[in-house]
Design brief:
Blueprint lengths: L12 E8 L3 H12 L4 E4 L6 H5 L15 E2 L2 E2 L11 H15 L3 E2 L4 E7 L2 E6 L2 E10 L6 E2 L13 E3 L14 E5 L3 H12 L4 E4 L9 E2 L2 E2 H7 L13 H6 L16 H6 L3 E3 L2 E5 L2 E4 L3 H25 L22 E3 L5 E6 L3 E2 L18 E2 L2 E2 L4 E3 L16 H23 L1
Parallel strand pairs: 1-2, 1-8, 2-5, 8-23, 10-19, 11-12, 11-19, 12-15
Antiparallel strand pairs: 3-4, 6-7, 7-8, 9-20, 13-14, 16-17, 17-18, 21-22
Amino acid sequence: MIDFRQKDARSAGTTDVIVIGAGHAGLATSFCLSERSIDHVVLERGEVANSWRKERWDSLKLLTPNWQSRLPGFSYAGDDPDGFMSMPEVIDFIQDYAVFSEAPVKTNTTVTSVRQNLDGYRVVTDNGEWQAKSVVIASGACNVAVTPKVAESIPANITSITPHQYRGPDQLEAGGVLVVGASATGLQLADEIRRAGHEVTIAVGEHVRMPRRYRGQDIQVWLDRTRILNECYDEIDDLTRARGLPSPQLIGSSDRKLLDLNSLTDSGVRLAGRLMGVNNGMAQFSGSLANVCALADLKMNRLLDTIDSWINTHSVSCDAAERFDATCVNGSPTLSLDLTDGSINTIIWATGFRPDYSWLNVPVLDRKGRIRHEGGVVDAPGMYVVGLPMLRRRKSSFIHGIEDDVRDLTAHLHDFLDTELRLAV
């Protein structure tokens, strides 16, 4: 394995910019800083692409096709542009980018504190301290799996795990599985675990339904060509809601199969509404499942209407418009489930993730622990954040979406450093 620490990554000292995190967002930031000849170092708690190595299940593939895998100055160069990268392939892609970009990465260096001082920021790590005028936080949006308070009421006989702990169905004990959450993660795990022979129930809350293919093309082709994902944060009415939307119900597979609640039902997965509580060992589910699914169907069809309109306006030759069956919800959906009778032995909490800012000792977090920022410009001089959902554009959370964001923010950072230099003279 290549030791990235040998490349310009001093053990400690002073630099213009500290980038925290050597995933795709941190490395893209490093590339753009190098283009502007800005002195910097990238600090990584583990290895390059650490979260992809240690916080993903074995069978996971990217939701975006390979042709969309691109970073500043670098793009997929394999022979399967319409395929989907496996986790080992994603790790190789990001590690190859680190080599290509000659990023000054210091691996196995955990940031334990970031504090403001008169000269900018003091960054303390388990391998020494750094002083920098600016800090770019690229530590990721999915550091901690979120579990609802109801998890505290689960009976002791039930094994509870999060997607960070899940690797594959072989690790699960025999018996039924309750998957809580129906975004991309929840659907993929429910599908895999059901195919492995387990009885599966999935608790469904708000979700984003999306077809894998539409009018003869991968849905990402249309999202790219229509520039829907390029919509900027300052063009969106309810930005807080947009940033909190779950990931779309997609799966990256060689057969480009459609994965939705209907396909799960066809395979024998039982649907239930949102998990509302657990009383005396009885799980209780919301009765609004039909309404939640109808709303997701409505929003999907609005998206398809937008794509159809663009296709017609631009006279694009493609397959005819189509619509997908409405989500089929049993007339008497499951409202309760006994967690003490042995029918359910495992619960997987596919209920979202959040960043970990426990080391950030700068008053820039709101009451929910989120960083206050304006399109990535944090509410503290010289501090930036990259790699969060809907940071500057709808595509911000995708690998291919990071370039436009970091180019905008490194331009802003360059101007900040230039101003600081003029004031110091």
